[in-house]
């Protein structure tokens, strides 16, 4: 594509009669970049660069489209028309809502197409790594198969096949196996598929395989499949498209960038049909939410893939209706032949005389022997799902000291439930007794307690997503706010006392000032946190942006006005309260009367309110101007999101402290001069201004970080309070990453999830009993 783009660019430049130097002067694109594009040495030109070149060449619409078609994969050919129509439709809708002309520049229309290709690459890379981490191909994938589900869960075949009225219709042949899931989906004309299977039957693995196979054969005209954990969706609180947009922004932060029609890029991708939602875990939704969820899905025409346990989906269908135009398939159980082929290949060769012999041969042979009542052995029933086979492999195949023959003991394990509980209960001790190179050792009993707390935390929040920025939500809202206020008061009080002592040389004065400022700041920041997040029930989300000090930031949206208002109101409130308290203390130290004390307190409140309000508004406004979105192709994992948010917060601190401090120190002098005589005789010496600015900058930055950022709450609650109370280890991030490496957790974008819902449920039950 780079060579084609270069040839088109060179031809159009020569047709315009321009040299490369003249094109540089007109477009602002350096001549080295132009030369590299024309020779093919530079690939993947940015759309902003393409737009600048097209404008400088004053191209006609057809020539502009040709240049864009050479730059954007899939813009030409059979799929180009479909892609272009989807882009134009989305832009027309956005422009109509914004009150703008419906026709947008072609370069703007190309932005979602380029973003979709970047998203496809990011999705493929992420789930390829996840498949390797789950060892799905070791030694080969279990043979997941399916058949068409019962007719009561199936819509009319005419709807599924998108037939016109009166056309004859019949059922589709939907049977297949794991390696053919992408072909099965494409054989459904409606583009809507429901995957049903009992717990542990391989629905999530099937969704992962669908993502990779579909992307491998995807054309540019097709949408990008993205997995969404639908169990975290509350359809009564947020619409499907808005929720998909939020999840896409969380897992792919680059989609927070501005898109066409003054909407976010994530919203543009969803609304233009460039995202194919793979909604995993319909059965994990809270009771009472499945019916409104199914109704909301039926209200849209989005192509999608939905996974669920049969009972939960059937109950929702009985309450409302089947998923419109959706073809349901149901996963079937593994057979003894499947086990014969798979389990022996997962064990080490221990018998040199017979290399093919292993620990499972005798067990599998025993399972084929008919029972007196001709019923299936409990172990055969248990090992009919990929989940239990994976657990049995972990407990017995990967640990030679364990003999799977004990699973045949009917006195020890009289039924299916006892066998399943045995495998679930032994999974954690097995994987944590196994040492990992470079990893620290963890006490299995403590691990059981910590993971039990996390499992119960997710159960109470009614979500499968283990987000590091929500770990503190296991505490009550009042407790969370109280801990935040107390720690913030302690930190700011210590900083204030130390700085006051350094400036004045008086330890007593510093201790007194810190004792006043610390609790007051903790109270006010705690109230801001309470009203902003606890009362409203909102989460403090990690930042989807970074700060760009050098160059011109591509801001996500223009938020200078709202930030100015929010910062000014918060700063004024704090400054008014702080000034009033300081005025009262000064008046009482001078033995002034009550009326004089109130007057002095009110004067100081007005002065400090104006100073802190203006400084906070200015600082918030400048922070917004320096924000720029992350790249779509950036690798996103819980650890990377945590590190990115930490860097963003630390950069904000380094920017906030000097800017806010300078604004306060300079502003106090300006306000004193402006109000001199109007409020009486006001005095503020340069040393006092410097001290106030320095302490305010440090204290304000720390208070903002601890109470209003995700990383600050992580430090307060997850790194201090929860380990202090024994709920989590001190090295929480290392513990979660180690659990992921051991196969206990899985990564779903920016969050962790328990590898198996059954394991999460079992751990939560054990935690409640404990």
Question: What portion of the residues fall into strands of 2 or more residues?
Answer: 5-15%
Give me the Rg, rounded: 31 Å
Largest sheet: 7 strands, mixed
Based on Cα principal axes, name the global outline: globular
Kindly report the average pLDDT value.
82
In short:
The chain is of the alpha/beta class. The protein contains 30 helices and eleven strands.
Give a verbal description of the structure.
The chain is of the alpha/beta class and 770 residues long. The protein is built from 30 helices and eleven strands. The strands form three sheets. Strands 2-1-7-3-6-5-4 form a seven-stranded mixed beta sheet, with helices on both faces. Strands 8-9 form a two-stranded antiparallel sheet. Strand 5 (275-280), helix 14 (290-298) and strand 6 (304-308) form a beta-alpha-beta unit. Helix 23 (507-534) runs antiparallel to helix 24 (560-589), helix 23 (507-534) packs parallel to helix 27 and helix 26 packs antiparallel against helix 27.
Which helices and strands, and how do they pair?
Blueprint: H1 2-15, H2 20-27, H3 31-39, H4 47-57, H5 61-71, H6 78-98, H7 106-109, H8 111-134, E1 145-148, H9 157-160, E2 176-177, H10 181-186, E3 192-196, H11 203-216, E4 224-229, H12 240-251, H13 265-271, E5 275-280, H14 290-298, E6 304-308, H15 310-319, E7 327-331, H16 336-342, H17 361-368, H18 378-382, H19 386-397, H20 416-433, H21 444-461, H22 477-504, H23 507-534, E8 545-547, H24 560-589, H25 594-625, E9 627-629, H26 638-675, H27 686-708, H28 710-724, H29 732-741, E10 745-748, E11 751-754, H30 757-769
Parallel strand pairs: 3-6, 3-7, 4-5, 5-6
Antiparallel strand pairs: 1-2, 1-7, 8-9, 10-11
